[in-house]
Write a structure and sequence with these properties.
mainly alpha, binds phenylalanine
């Protein structure tokens, strides 16, 4: 190929780009409803424990693999150990399958943003009506597909600009905007009548709702939210320069990702309580419950547009990272030019996403193990491929990878102290594999108690 591989500018770029991948629909759409179903504050505590026990070690392991090799996920594993190249393919397949449903939900955010801008969101006054409209929209054979395609093209546009001009610049622009918007929305929500009850629900632990499944949900959510277990962070860290401090970058990414999830809870639960709605309404919380709440506020359509724009930005920085895993693979491993690689990825993932959107409506009869295509993509990635990827990544980093490489990368060639290195190795060797094996078997229905 001969051309010089891109690297990201400074430390801030590394943090914002990786945080862009991590912060996504997982934080704003998924985290609040899972927390709502699992005892609010109790879930938050368990989630933070999972982040510390699993998230930190696996993220550092992925950063090490990526930055050391400066290659896409397949190339990176192959360089470190030929026998482990398959783990890179797991990452390519997972990214493809995640985009298959992530583009669809991202498309919905686009639709709701447009509905808010046009003012017709003011007709979404009751949850029952909203639920009907949401079902009508998502099962429609045309409109959600148009939104999905638009979202895929938006992602393509950023990827086509390249790593520095596209990914780096867009993350540096979008992430700060996202933060400010989220803080404004959370402040508005908390100030609503009875808003503080929502804060209390979200932050006060209710351990009576905690079951074995709560722990599994928290672990799965930690992986999904940090974009780990599928080589996304390997691809991104392969663009880090040698001065990037991996420990600090990992810490900042994790802190930002968790902060956004907490702020999203603070934006959503006070509003839900102030409208006297059950806080456990599941995945439709954002698309069904929230519009009627916005309508009780002065300038409702404005708040609604702001919220859905926030979701669009969060989703976009994540779809870009998933797209990049595939584009970098096709470009570096299969010898396609970057432009061609990006188009192949956009076309294939869009077709898959269109099929999965149709599976919510007209193609609903086509089932894989009792699930439609959309749900199976979600299930297979979140419950099987990500924990499996995390399990194998921790085994690889703990048992196969040369300890010297791990130490050199994590200590930035000896310039950083890493007092907890021994603990990191123990977590990677024993704790992560044991916990992840449990999730994996449980999700396959094999090991339940
Ligand atoms: N972390 C993203 C989110 O929270 C989703 C994602 C998963 C993105 C895996 C890339 C890779 O929404």
């Amino acid at each position: 190929m001969g051309e010089k591989r891109a690297t990201l500018g400074g430390r801030l770029s590394a943090v914002l780009v990786a945080a862009g991948s991590a912060v996504g629909l997982g934080n704003i759409w998924r985290f609040p409803y899972i927390a709502g179903e699992n005892g609010g504050g109790a879930f938050l505590i368990i989630y933070i424990a999972c982040i510390l026990l699993l998230g930190v070690p696996v993220l550092l392991a992925e950063f090490t693999v990526g930055r050391h090799t400066h290659l896409n996920s397949v190339g990176a594993y192959r360089t470190l150990s030929k026998r482990w190249a398959f783990l890179g393919y797991n990452s390519v397949i997972s990214s493809l399958l995640i985009l298959g449903f992530y583009f669809v939900v991202s498309g919905w955010t686009l639709e709701y943003f447009i509905t808010s801008l046009s003012g017709s969101i003011s007709e979404y006054t009751h949850s029952a009506v909203n639920a009907e409209r949401f079902a009508e929209f998502t099962t429609n054979p045309l409109r959600p597909i148009v939104c999905t395609v638009l979202f895929a093209l938006l992602t393509h546009a950023v990827i086509a600009l390249g790593v520095q001009k596209g990914i780096e610049r867009s993350s540096k622009l979008m992430m700060p905007i996202l933060f400010v918007m989220l803080i404004v929305i959370a402040a508005r929500s908390i100030a609503l009548p009875f808003g503080l009850e929502g804060v209390e629900f979200f932050l006060k632990p209710d351990f009576s709702k905690v079951t074995a499944k709560t722990f599994l949900d928290a672990m799965g959510q930690a992986f999904f939210s940090l974009s780990i277990g599928l080589g996304c962070m390997i691809t991104y860290s392969s663009y880090f320069n040698d001065k990037t401090n991996l420990q600090k970058t990992a810490f900042n990414v994790i802190a930002l990702d968790t902060l956004v999830a907490v702020l999203a809870g603070l934006a959503i639960f006070p509003a839900v309580f102030s409208a006297d709605i059950e806080p456990t309404s599941g995945p439709s919380l954002v698309f069904v419950t929230l519009p009627s709440i916005f309508n009780t506020m002065t300038f409702g359509p404005f708040w609604s547009a702001l919220f859905f724009l926030l979701l669009i930005l969060a989703a976009l920085t994540s779809t870009i990272s998933l797209h990049e895993v595939l584009t970098a693979y096709l470009h570096e491993e299969r010898g396609l030019s970057r432009t061609k690689a990006a188009w192949v990825v956009t076309i294939v993932t869009t077709l898959l996403a269109c099929a999965s959107s149709l599976s919510l409506g007209v193609w609903g009869d086509f089932k894989i193990c009792g699930l439609n295509l959309f749900d199976s993509l979600d299930f297979v990635t979140a419950n099987i491929l990500l924990p499996l990827g995390g399990l194998l990544t921790s085994i690889f980093a703990g048992w196969v990878l040369d300890r010297k490489i791990l130490r050199t990368e994590i200590s930035d060639h000896g310039s950083m102290r890493c007092r907890l290195f021994g603990l990191l190795v123990v977590l990677l060797r024993y704790v992560c594999p044991a916990l992840l094996l449990w999730i994996f078997l449980y999700n396959l229905g094999i090991f339940r108690f």
